Every structure is written in structure tokens, then in C-alpha cells.
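Q: What does the assembly look like in three dimensions?
Context provided by user:
Components: two
Sequences:
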Amino acid sequence: MSGSRAVFFLAVRDLKRDRKIFGLVIFLLIFSYINLTFFPAFLNGLSNTFQDEIVDTGTSHILLQPASGREYLDSVKNIQQKIELIPGVVATSTHIGGSASLAVDGATAGKKPGPATPVTSGLSLGAQVMGLTPSEDQYVTPISQRIVSGDWLSDDDTDKVVLGLYIAGERLEDKIGETTLFGTLMEGLGGVQPGDVVQATFTNGVVKNYKVKGIVHSEGFSFVSQTAYFTTKELEDVYGLHDQASSILVRLNDPENADKVKTFIIGLGIKQADILTWKEASNFAEGLSQTFGIVNVVTNIVGIVIVLATVSIVIFINTARKKRIIGVLKAIGLRESLVLRVFLVESLIFGVIGSLGGMAIMGILLSFFKASPIVLPIGLLTPVVGPDIFFGSAFIIIFISLFGGYFPSRLASRADIIDSLKVVE
Amino acid sequence: MIDLKDVWRIYDMGEVKVPALQGIDFTVKKGEFVSVMGRSGSGKSTLLHIAGVLDRQTKGSVRIEGTNVLTLTERQRTLFRLDKIGFVFQFYSLLPELTAVENVMLPQLIIGETREHAHKQAKKVMDLLEIGKRLNNYPHQLSGGEQQRVGIARALVNDPLILFADEPTASLDTTSAKIVIEAFRKLHEERGQTTIMITHEEALGREAERGVWLKDGKIEKEKRF
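A: Here is the predicted structure of the complete assembly.
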């Protein structure tokens, strides 16, 4: 195409000459690319952190809950046996949920559990309680691996409890001058330790003393640190249940097969249960992410406008400085459309290099955070970017450059030759 | 070759109309070297802009090689300049980011020639103007006279029918000015290059074949040297 050689030649030489301007624009575009991609990456990571923790400690890959109007699932052993025969299922675990008031009396510390007598002085709190069978749950959830002090439960433990760290709490007198993860001291039961005795008052009126066997804690967004764990055997006794559970958790060897396995389970005809895949059970995390996404859109729009204005101004100044040379070029036969193309090619080069630079830096950042996740109060966060955002943002950057460069370039290309030649630089 | 008949150029400055050219009749034959002289504001540059197809007359006819240039579209006028006209400007006409030879190659690249061909052509013209040893120097590394000869080389590289020079020695010292004028003479004598040179220095204007004096937008006198 006639003139294309001159266009590329002039564009590249011009950029080489104005290295400071080139560097400034590229820096802005790289910054803008990272601005466009990092927050969504952070949100994706946040969503994944939420979901992973919820899946690990709350729902597993498939969750069976009592259908509306029911409190418990019945004949759970039979259901478990049937589900475990489905290809792709690793294991199942039943959970019995409830709540209780837990109390500790300084006088009972170190004593063996005995007949419950009302705690008249000391600390108490309301907590979520959960009954599970440790031998089967270990294949479904990693809760048993979250022990930070003492030991995890055994299937036959009936007078023992494992407390979440926030229930066990801290001895405030030991923590003066310190701040905890959330910036406030977690008093809980005042720093209960394994071996101490706590008294549980269940919602059905049963009151019983338990020896604390261990303390569990999870950094993630989960209820592990806010739950008191008992064995299934113990909570069946407390609530008077037999072969019943509040939920059945199903672990799969491939989480992406959840929909397929769910279809199999539905085929078993378990009408008493609502069956949810991990995506369905944890979709609030996605909702949360979408909410943040709106903030992200606003931030990005502001960022895009700023970069658009900056690129426009830089190219405007660049073309204004070259008014006489543009006049000379037009006089010697460079068509108006070719002058426009020179500056558009420059804008395109800005966009392409800015995008490539942004993608390279973002790639490095993602690799770095993959190796060293960001530590947040809700857990470890690894920013993740899908190809849509990764390449889509590059496209936006190129578009911004071209759009930002178009109007000043058009203005420059349309300048009157005689007026341009009169300019003394 | 160039035929201007009753050419007027009136600038519209709001309520005031300023006539820069007032009924100019001007003809240049093929191979002529003509200097256009006059004081500042006499209309020299306006005449060059109109004859060089950079500007349009308000009234009258401008024919170059039989083409009525007023009828051409802006795009056609640009291509006409690219093909038939070479310009040498007064100052700062070279692109500072390009070497001397790259500046000269530019019109060749604009017409779509390859870099190799453009380089070959540029070198040929630069050799003719005795700046063949300065191919890879940037404009700031050249003297004023050399810069202006690079400008002449660029004007010649597409082998134009007519060479227009707008005060080509105005920003040069006497020695450099003489070298540049000598280059125009050489081109005229050796290549028969049709050249129209604007200058306000009569001594330099007398180096041409014929002189035309302008005053207040009109031709005051003509003289063959």
C-alpha cells in the first residue's frame, strides 16, 4: 500500500526519538492494565478462598440437607452406602448440627467431667455445635487437621469436646497491649486449654460437662473456629437421634463432576433431601464477589478515563510540537490520511507495548502470589485471572490508546499547510 | 510549464480583506531558473504557495503542465505535489529523528518505493549535491549549508518537474548561502531543472536566469540576467 512504508518508518522513528514521552505513556498504560486486571484477580482469589474454605469445612463437594419442613435426614447410613457406590465419590460424612450455651467455671478447671452442676460464676457464650464421626469425616473434611492444641476426637468419645479457638478464647490478662487478628481481643471462654472442663447446655435442656480434648482453628472464612465439635455418638445421645443427621457431605475425586454425581444422587430417589453441589452451596461467595465487582467497574471506569485523557494530552502535545514538520510532510506529499496514520500507528504501538508490558508484569505478579499467597484475616488469597480478563484488558488498553490518540492525531493531520509552515520551532 | 493568469489571493481577516496578490500574470518555461524578489509583504511567498499547489487562489487561473490545479481535490493536489513538485523550505524542514539520507528517502517511501530503492536514489542525489559523505549524520550534526542541501536533495529525490525554494538561504551565513545557490545553479545547468526561488536578497536572486520583482502583490518588473 502506497505510503505504508513511510507511515511505519516515521512512527517508529518518532517514538525512538521521544523516549521520555514513550516511556511515560507505556508506564501509564502498564499501570492501567494492572489496574484493570489486578482487582478482578484479587476478587477471583477472594471468591476462591471463600469457596475453598466453605467446601473444605462446610459443604464438601455435594451437600444433602433436610428438605423444607424436615429437621433431620433419616436412614442416613443407607443413604451413605448408596452414595458411596457412585463412581467418583471418595467418601461421605454425616454432620449433626445444633447450638448450645457453653460455660466455664474457674473452679472446674482441671477436674474430671462429673455430674453437671450449674456454673454460677465464670464465662459463658452461645455456640454452634457439630457432631461428626471422626473416622469417616477425615476423608471428607480437613477439620481434624486444623488442631492447634491437644488432640482430635475419636469415634467413641462421649465426654469430650474439641473447641474452636474463638470459643476457647484468650486469657485477657495475658494479652494486654496486644491485638488479635481482628483487632479486638477474643475473650471467649477466657483461654480454655485441653484438659479443662466446660459445661454445655443444649437447646433441648440437656446439661453436661465435657473435657476439652483439643482446640481447632482455621485462618479461613469458616465456622471452624466458632464451633464446638462432638462425636456423632454423643450428639445422638444428647438429641435422642438414631441413624439421623442434619447433613450428609459427599467428597468427590473431581469437584468438576459435582453436577454429574448430583444427577446420580437425585436418581437414587432421596426425596427427604435437598441436594446442592458445592457451587450452589457456596454461591453467596460469588454474589459477594459480584458486589465487589461493581466497585471494580467504577474504579476501572475512572482509571480508563484518566488514562484516556492522559494519552490524548500526551499525543496532543506531541503533535502540537511537530506542527511545522507536519506541514513540511504534507507539503512534500504525505497525504492527510497518512499523517493521521503515523500518529495512529504510534498510538497502536503504545497500546500493544503497554498491553504486553502489563501482561508480563501481571504474569510475574500472579506467579509471585501463587508462590506466596496474600495473608488476609479470612485466609490465604491467591489472585487469579481468567483469559477473558487477561486478554480482554489488553484489548481495552489498545483501544484506549487508539481512541485517545485519534482526536489529537486527526486535528494535527487536518492542520492547514501554510499555517503549519509559518510555525517557528 | 507554469502559467498563472490574473491570479488574485485575498485573505479574509474578518471585516478586513487583505489582497496579497493582485492580478498576477506569471509564466515559467521548462528548464528556467527564475528568482522572485521583493520586500517582506510583497506577496513572494503567497505566489510560491499558489504556484506550488499549497494554497488556492481567490481568482484567476493556475495551470501547471496544462493541469488546472484549482479543479483538483485536496488528495489530488497532495499527489500532484508528490509527483511533480519539489519544495525547499527556509528553515527547520528536516525531521530531526531521521538521518540525512533517511530525510531524503522520505518522498520515495511515500510513493511506495522500497527502502533499498529509496536509499539508492537518495544517495545518488546527495552525491550530486556533494553531501554523499554525510548520509548517516543527523540534522543537528550538519552545518546550515549542509542541512539546506539535504533539503534540496529531498526535494529532488522524486525527480520533480519543478523545484520551488522559499528563501532557501535566509537562515544561512554568506558562505553557506553561496554553496546553496551554487547547488541550484548546478542543478539548472546540469539537469535543466526548472527552479523558482524566492529571495529577498537581490544579489542571490541575480544568480538565477531571470528575475521577477513583486511589490504590493503585483509584478513590479522582470529582468533576464
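Follow-up: Residues 3-53+286-422 of chain A form one domain.
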